[in-house]
Specification:
The chain is α/β, with parallel strands linked by helices. The protein has helices at residues 5-30, 36-69, 74-97, 102-118, 161-171, 181-191, 202-211, 236-248, and strands at residues 129-134, 174-178, 195-200, 217-221. Helix 7 links the parallel strand 3 and strand 4 (217-221). 35% of the residues are buried.
Length: 250
């Protein structure tokens, strides 16, 4: 199911208006207070809040421009990163208040992130790219410990780990299979890749993208025909396309 980018951008914009309404309320209270000290403090508070509001507005506008033009500049990326870091939890809260499905919001966020990453000019050797795959992609009855060393995979064809291993060998890129976000962050810290292709569920992908926002990450949602965390699957065409993007500069 293709996620709609406008859902996440719409929630960010709604969050912006919500913050603006709070600022207006505080400003209104300023002129209904008699103590001078309180007025000064409130003016300072509102001034800081307005500054953040302007930055957030610029960030949302920058993301929309990057999506429309399919091109990014360093200042747009920096402002958009600040907006994602600060307004992402607010957007989730607003979505909850509006009873919007959380996974739909996360899918929209991942779609926006992928689009922004693909707007960049990236050209990396295979050794600088890491594929991060969840342990649940491995067949549940497989006895081989691929989280210790993915070379232990026998490529029997019962799951997609074998195909991921072939792809990693083809491009000479790093492939790590991890059991959770902590080990994923540890793998990135150890290997220091220039870009990441991450396969996971909505929650793990969105949190991972937030955690390593400085590194370009293309997120690919896994399929869960047997429920979460059990014999999951992934579209290898999407993984191949992501690898080609990073290695050929889009």
């Amino acid at each position: 199911m293709e996620a709609k980018k406008r859902l996440y951008l719409g929630l960010l914009t709604f969050s912006l208006f919500l913050i603006a309404a709070v600022i207006w309320l505080v400003w209104f209270l300023i002129f209904n207070r008699t103590m001078m000290l309180n007025q000064v403090l409130l003016v300072l508070l509102v001034s800081v809040a307005v500054l953040f509001l302007i930055i957030f507005a610029l960030g949302i506008i920058a993301m929309v421009i990057m999506i429309i033009r399919s091109h990014t500049t360093p200042w747009q990326e920096n402002v958009a990163r600040v907006v994602n870091e600060w307004l992402f939890p607010v957007a989730l809260l607003v979505g909850k208040l509006l009873r919007v499905d959380r996974d739909s919001i996360l899918r929209s966020f991942i779609a926006v992130n992928n689009y922004l990453v693909r707007s960049k000019q990236v050209n990396l050797p295979g050794q600088k790219v890491m594929i991060l795959a969840p342990h649940c992609l491995q067949h549940a009855e497989c006895p081989h410990k691929i989280t210790i060393d993915v070379a232990n995979c026998k490529q029997c064809g019962k799951c997609k780990i074998g195909e991921l291993k072939k792809l990693a060998d083809q491009y000479d890129c790093k492939l790590r299979v991890v059991t959770g976000g902590t080990l994923a962050r540890q793998a990135i810290k150890e290997q220091r890749p220039g870009a990441v292709i991450a396969i996971a569920c909505e929650r793990d992908l969105s949190l991972g993208i937030q955690d390593i926002s400085i590194i370009p990450v293309l997120g690919i949602l896994n399929y869960r025909p047997h429920g979460p965390c059990l014999n999951t699957d992934v579209d290898m065409i999407r993984v191949n396309n992501a690898m080609e993007f990073f290695s050929q500069g889009g």
